[in-house]
Design a protein that fits this description.
The chain is mainly alpha-helical. The protein is about 40% helix and about 5% strand. Strand 1 and strand 2 form a beta hairpin. It is elongated and about 55 Å long.
Length: about 120
């Protein structure tokens, strides 16, 4: 089966091999990438032991200027609609950092500000 996903890196394979040697169940995606079997209990000791082999996180991909502008307009619109705490998007990736708000605020946004969300996110 063809996939748009890249093959696993040597670092990913080494990290997951380490976990497997520590007794962590590993499953493989359709394109052959190893992953921790999330249906099994978490093994903190194994993850700590293998942490030095963990590959570095992928660098965020820049958004195109139109996406950044749209995300900035959405943030400004939500604040104008009464969601005063809503953060600005990252100026490079256009992503909203959900750590910049409490879980309660994010829940309330979806529960109490439906009209604002519809107004400020018309394409969704």
């Amino acid at each position: 089966m063809a996939s748009d996903s890249p093959p696993p890196t040597a670092e990913e394979i080494a990290y997951h091999d380490c976990l497997k040697k520590q007794g962590v169940a590993i499953v493989y995606t359709d394109y052959g990438a190893p992953r921790v079997d999330k249906s099994r209990p978490w093994n903190e000791e194994a993850h700590k032991a293998c942490e030095p082999l963990l590959p570095p996180p992928a660098k965020p991909q820049p958004a195109d200027p139109a996406q950044v502008t749209a995300a900035q307009k959405e943030s400004a619109c939500l604040r104008a609609e009464g969601v005063s705490w809503y953060p600005d998007p990252d100026p490079v990736t256009a992503q909203i950092d959900e750590r910049r708000g409490t879980p309660e605020q994010w829940t309330a946004l979806k529960r109490d500000h439906i009209d604002a969300l519809k107004k400020c996110r018309p394409e969704r």
